[in-house]
Write a structure and sequence with these properties.
15 strands, 2 domains, lyase, 9 helices, Alpha-Beta Plaits, 5-stranded mixed beta sheet, 4-stranded antiparallel beta sheet, alpha+beta, binds (3R)-3-hydroxy-3-methyl-5-(phosphonooxy)pentanoic acid, single chain, Ribosomal Protein S5, domain 2
Length: 347
Amino acid sequence: MRTVTCAAPVNIAVIKYWGKRDERLILPVNDSISFTLSLDEMYSKTTVSISPTFTEDKFWLNGKEESLENPRIQNCLKEIRRRASKRKLEGSDEDVLNWHVHICSANNFPTAAGLASSAAGYACLVYALGQVYGVEGDLSSIARQGSGSACRSVHGGLVRWYKGEMEDGTDSFARPIAPANHFPNLRVIICVANDGRKKTGSTEGMRRTVQTSRLMQYRIRESVGLRIDSMMQAIKEKNWSAFCDLTIADSNEMHAVCQDSFPPCIYMSDTSHAVASLVHQYNEIQISKGNLNNKVCYTFDAGPNACLFVPGAVANEMLSLLLRTFPPSSPPNADNFIRGMKPQTLS
Ligand code: PMV
């Protein structure tokens, strides 16, 4: 029997992946850039065991047995076994490929609530499978086939997912572009406005946007590529102010194309907009004082929860501002739950 347990943190996109050009292989319409958070707070933990005594493959998610028929898990499993069998042909491993697998996975934060649970989950699953079957090399393109954004959680720090040009997806993978401390002493605050499952999953939301939104065509052809270039430049120059402006602009564009789809996909709530407007007010004060390095930025995934990137120097101030503006009820619940954390290097 072989058993491996590992943990993978969530990643938060600052230039969003939104829209697929190939749904089966999960190939995106644009490059994206993200920050992988630390393992201190929001992470997935997965244990993978293989044994000659297991009689079937089995899967548990958050303590509940689930079907392994899920095509995305199957894609990851198939690809790992395919790569492992290649190694075996090279004569490097014992015969484990016919053993059944048991997978036990759990998130320590709400699943499918627009908090990047699938990114952490699939990155963790693929990494654990890779370890158990002795598969080496790039795992990001396998994690991508579980959930697109998962390919970025395989690496730590700032990560870019290259959309690639090939039809078979072999050049669609993630690579680290800068370490987690690139912007020193950075803090991340996650404001959970609602931790329920989202109404429109990202797969359906992306499909609808690509099929019906004209604004999405503008994003693909004219906007997001230039923003990727500007973000790479901002990162290279450590230009925090530009990083903030680009992050905010890309989140707003993603939610604009969602709203422009038919019927519209609405992910942000009144609370989300109130958090965004608080950040803009705060930034105006910092700009008027000439403190561009104290700017804060927000980004929203396919849900109402805000992710704020906050310089350490103003993190306490921002946190108390948030707590005063959105006072926690007593006892704290998911509607007022704010988590602070910092990005970390993983790989
Ligand atoms: O990987 P998915 O299918 O969960 O899509 C995630 C999409 C966003 O989180 C909204 C954006 C991103 O780049 O992570």
